[in-house]
Amino acid sequence: MRELPDVLKDWEAVIGLEVHCELTTLETKMFCGCPNTHDAEPNANVCPVCLGMPGALPVPNKAAIESIVRAGLACNCEIQKHSMFYRKHYFYPDMAKNFQTTQGPVAFCMYGHLDLDVAGEGAAERPDGTGVDKAADGSYTTPVRILRIHMEEDAAKMNHLGGEEGRITSATESLIDYNRCGTPLTELVTEPDLRTPEEARLFMEKLRRIYLTLGISDCSMEHGSMRCDGNVSLRRRGETRLGTKTELKNINSFKSLHDGLAYEICRQAEVLEEGGVIYQETRHWEPSRRRTVVMRVKETADDYRLFPDPDLAPYDLTDEFIAHCAAEIPELPDAKRDRYMADFGLKRADAEQIAGDPDCAAFFEEAVAGETTKGAATVANVIVNDLTGYLNAAGIAISETSITPAQVKSLADLLASDAISSNQGREVFGLMAESGDDPAAIVDARGMRQVSDTGALEPIVDAVLARCGEQVEQYRGGNKRVVGFLVGQCMKDSKGKGNPKLFNQLLTAKLEA
Ligand code: ADP
Ligand code: MG
Ligand code: ZN
Questions:
Q1: H-type helices in 233-288, by residue range?
Q2: Ligand 1 test: best mutation among 17, 111, 231, most atoms within 8 Å of CB?
Q3: Are residues 135 and 268 in the same domain?
Q4: 3-class secondary-structure state, position 400
Q5: Do residues 37 and 82 share a domain?
Q6: Are residues 19 and 65 in the same domain?
Q7: Hey, which of 107, 203, 410, 500 has its CA 20 to 30 A from 184?
Q8: Are residues 435 and 462 in the same domain?
Q9: Do the domain assignments include residue 302?
Q10: CB of residue 192 inside a 6 A radius of ligand 1
């Protein structure tokens, strides 16, 4: 198969996403009062409504509707004042009532959009001359329309034991847990406006940052509270008609979204170039084997017998309700990123990472309260590099660590004032994470403070220059890089405590004199 960049020169990829997100921060399910938690014993959180007992009547969860309206507003949607819940029929044990309650043609949120900023290597996936204005560095911004965000209920979780390759056979034993059945779920559907796997990935990441900031979900791709289906088709460049799409189901990581779509694009190109046809089907991405396989061919919408749910009255949202939802929207990630760049001079990537996670943003803001720009940039550095690396390795969230903003600030101060080098900084971070001690105390107890006093460093520099006549000759002969070797000698003589930047300055001054 040809590689993606090559394929995209001849073919235009057309991608649309359907993103499901569980409203994990709500206390109760969508249409009943059962707890909305994942950690209970199997089948503990159930009642006649979510088990679909005849005669049990659903009552919509107002807090869920608040959450989805906030999502809609944050995604620039038009909030629909009048909508209805529908029944989508199907037969499978994960929904005991044999239909899923969902929204009909009119969803709470319609016709929104998000703008994507695409930069760096990912921007190269989109060949030039394909309708976006690229900046000198290749970066570009492109709008992605959102058709709708609707409210529905999730199904039960099934666990199939035995059988082969995920297929259910007569040897399979199936376990079912109705705790998730009836929990509040949103689905966002984009228009087919995405053109590269990287754009699809960036869209998901951006949406996740927004949902996290709104506090409507924990948005864990890993645990399935946020998941997406990727629809993709190809057409020859210049063609306007859409090709037949395939759908990659239940993608559970950003990497899988990107790699699965990239594979599927290359696969479709190969089929089409050999004169074959693409069937509209659902496929599954197998990351370990790096391929997609057919799950099922598409059922048509008629099979669902979609009709308004007679147990749920049409839903009317008042202006007051919508205004109340709007008032609860916090500063959104893009605005926060721009503020961090303007107020603290953070690099764009650092600002975006910190602003995209509300817990991380709160941590940062506590650490830099009353701080200058240089100090803030160093705090950001420690958070983005040391702290994030540490949390990832430990598999915990920033809200779960005992490391405090004050400790990070103290470490950043030591770095910003050159009291310790960046190498020492990493070491101090590790010691701090382990012991919980204050970085300044760690540095003092271990005598790690860098010597930045010229008077103390100069004799070392002189001794090194006297000893290394050969390197001094080389330097004067034009090989300026040899200064690195000389700094190394000075560091050795100072037992690692001299400030390497200062050694470099002193050496250079003396060599040039
Ligand atoms: P389905 O009925 O198969 O669910 P929809 O029309 O509801 O299809 O669209 C589902 C998703 O697929 C949307 O995100 C939409 O943008 C995208 N989509 C629709 N047609 C195409 C196509 N030809 N190529 C790529 N994506 C498409
Ligand atoms: Mg669909
Ligand atoms: Zn219930």
A1: 254-273
A2: 231
A3: yes
A4: helix
A5: yes
A6: yes
A7: 203
A8: no
A9: yes
A10: yes
Distances (CA, A) of 424 to 394, 419, 460, 487: 21, 10, 21, 16
One-letter amino acid identity for 280? Q
Q: What are the tens digits of pLDDT across the range 23-36?
A: 999 999 999 999 99
Q: Is there a single domain that holds both residue 69 and residue 197?
A: yes
Is residue 328, in this structure, part of any structural domain at all? no
**Is 301's pLDDT higher than 80?**
no
Ligand nearest to the CA of 49: 3
233 close to ligand 1 (CB < 6 Angstrom): yes
What CA–CA distance (Å, rounded) separates 507 from 513?
Answer: 10
Residue 278 lies in a domain: yes
Residues 281 and 421 placed together within one structural domain of the fold: no
CB of 246 sitting under 6 A from ligand 1:
no
Q: Where are the beta strands (DSSP E) in 366-501?
A: none
Nearest to 205 by CA among 356, 103, 385: 356
Q: How far is the CA of 29 from the centre of ligand 3 (A)?
A: 7
- Kindly state if the Cβ of 189 falls inside 6 Å of ligand 1: yes
Among 144, 204, 245, 297, residue to substitute to test ligand 1 (most atoms within 8 Å of Cβ): 245
Residue whose structure tokens are 């799950």: 295
Ligand nearest to the CA of 190: 1
Residue 492: CATH number of its domain: 1.10.10.410
- Domain range holding 402? 333-445
* Residue 280 alpha carbon, nearest atom of ligand 1: 3
Question: Is the same domain home to 175 and 295?
Answer: yes
Cβ of residue 396 lying under 6 Å from some atom of ligand 1: no
For 33-90, give the DSSP string: -SB--SSSPTT-S--TTTTT-TT------HHHHHHHHHHHHHTTPEEPSEE-EEEEE-
- Domain total in the chain: 3
- Is 239 touching ligand 1 by the criterion CB < 6 Å? no
What are the tens digits of pLDDT across the range 167-183? Answer: 778 878 889 999 999 99
Residue 115 lies in a domain: yes
Measured CA to CA in angstroms, residue 89 lies from 122, 178, 300 at distances of 41, 18, 12
User: What gap in Å lies between CA 276 and CA 254, rounded to an integer?
Assistant: 30
- Predicted pLDDT at 374: 72
Give the nearest ligand 1 atom to 242 CA: 23
- Same domain for 390 and 281: no
pTM for the complete prediction? Answer: 0.88
184 near 64, Cβ under 8 Å?
yes
Distance of CA 218 from the midpoint of ligand 2 (Å): 23
